[in-house]
Amino acid sequence: MIPGFTREYGVKRLLFFEAHQDMEAAILREKRLKKWRRAWQIERIETTNPEWEDLAVTMLGFLALPA
């Protein structure tokens, strides 16, 4: 709907998310995660979401996007 990261990179699924008390904590955590090696990021996803389900659909109730 809005041009940006998800459109540019073709993001279709939400595989991982964390809730935080405030925006500042969320931004700090996001910056730390972005510095992780890709293998560590994948391991984090597989630890919390081993089936790689679209969490926007299964947890948040959104309709699935076409593949």
Describe this entry's structure for a reader.
- The chain is mainly α.
- Helix content is 48%, strand content 0%.
- The protein contains four helices and no strands.
- The protein has helices spanning 5-9, 23-34, 38-48, 55-58.
Q: Which stretches are poorly predicted, pLDDT < 50 over at least 5 residues?
A: none
- By DSSP, the count of extended strands is 0
**Mean of residue pLDDT values:** 92
Shape, principal axes of CA atoms: globular
Structural class: mainly alpha
**What summary fits the major beta sheet?**
none
Helix amount, in percent? 40-55%
Elements, N to C (H/E): HHHH
Q: Please state roughly what percent of the residues sit in beta strands, choosing from under 5%, 5-15%, 15-25%, 25-35%, 35-45% or over 45%.
A: under 5%
How many whole angstroms does the radius of gyration measure? 13 Å
